[in-house]
């Protein structure tokens, strides 16, 4: 066998290397199978044992409230009825937002909420891969510019220290890797801690995040005319995202897009 490999590859080193590669793959597969026996992969929604890691069981998949067309071409909010050619919602026409386009994977229903919760608080940082890939698909029309900068909504450093990671940065990194675009995790900074937005009125929310963000950029880099894709896990009230967009606008960013994993439906009081 060794002789045969030697003659085929023209050298012992090459043949051994190749042999190791041939053996390596099944070993890797076997290793994964053993790992799956010890720690079987669980549904990211309900915890039921599933075949593939980072996937949902059939029931949770069916329960995800995926956002699909028809939706507003600006805000990405699904229309409850088909508006035909009028693809911009009346809300957006009445109050033009600070961003150009926003897209989300799903409404913040039971399954999406559990996924976000596990990513954020249950150490399931591995979920960022599948969630980020879904975000690439949902936000495809925000990701057409190869020079775009992918930026997460930042946490204040005190909260970052407590949680150890920024879930939005994990998602943004996957999006940048999948699309080959630039990931700038520190472009936006939170200059002061802010209260949780839940339970605040619209005005209170705006005041809460006003002046809470700043751009952190060296003198050599300019945002002028650059497409910026802002990434967050959940779109709740939109006040935080709006504050980030305003800071980016002031720095002359070109197109500003927002991609979130989930979006709280208008009028919903679903807690995070
Ligand atoms: Zn499930």
Automatic annotation (TrEMBL):
<comment type="similarity">
    <text>Belongs to the ComF/GntX family.</text>
</comment>
<dbReference type="InterPro" id="IPR051910">
    <property type="entry name" value="ComF/GntX_DNA_util-trans"/>
</dbReference>
<dbReference type="InterPro" id="IPR029057">
    <property type="entry name" value="PRTase-like"/>
</dbReference>
<dbReference type="Pfam" id="PF00156">
    <property type="entry name" value="Pribosyltran"/>
</dbReference>
<feature type="domain" description="Double zinc ribbon">
    <location>
        <begin position="35"/>
        <end position="82"/>
    </location>
</feature>
<protein>
    <submittedName>
        <fullName>ComF family protein</fullName>
    </submittedName>
</protein>
<dbReference type="InterPro" id="IPR000836">
    <property type="entry name" value="PRTase_dom"/>
</dbReference>
<dbReference type="InterPro" id="IPR044005">
    <property type="entry name" value="DZR_2"/>
</dbReference>
<dbReference type="Pfam" id="PF18912">
    <property type="entry name" value="DZR_2"/>
</dbReference>
<feature type="domain" description="Phosphoribosyltransferase">
    <location>
        <begin position="212"/>
        <end position="270"/>
    </location>
</feature>
